Amino acid sequence: MEQLVRVVPTWCWWLIALAVVAGGQQYRVVVAQGDTATARGELADYRLEVSERDRRAAAQARTEEQRRQAVADKEGESARQQLELAQGRAAAAESAAGGLRGEIERLRAGRAATCDTIASQQRQAGASAVVVLGGLLEESDRMAGSCAAALERSRIAGLACESIYNGLTK
User: Fold this and answer.
1) Nearest 5 degrees, angle CA 80-CA 83-CA 85?
2) Domain edges within the chain
């Protein structure tokens, strides 16, 4: 063996050592490139999986948003119809109240006409009581009508809000 070492020049041994080291390094590079390719493939698969999951989540969110909007629209339309109905009833009540106010005025006029034969002092006291009571009745009727209309609107709005909330939380 020693003779073989002496027969081969030193520079050849250096060249052999360099070839072995270069071959080892080349092997490491090839293995690293294979690992990189595998990692890139896994990364691409992961990105595809994440994008598909995002797409499904966005579609599900859109579906839920559309469902909620449909519930809100339906309840809003129902509330609008109830408000229109309540406004119609309020108009009918106002019309009836107008008739009652006309009747009060007729009674006032009749009271004034029949009281001409009574003494002046009694007529003034009676007429003033009728006028005061008639005025109070008219004013209380107006106030009751406006309060009833406001309460009806508030009730309808509250029920609509509650229905929308219940529809959205299902």
Assistant:
1) 110
2) 18-169
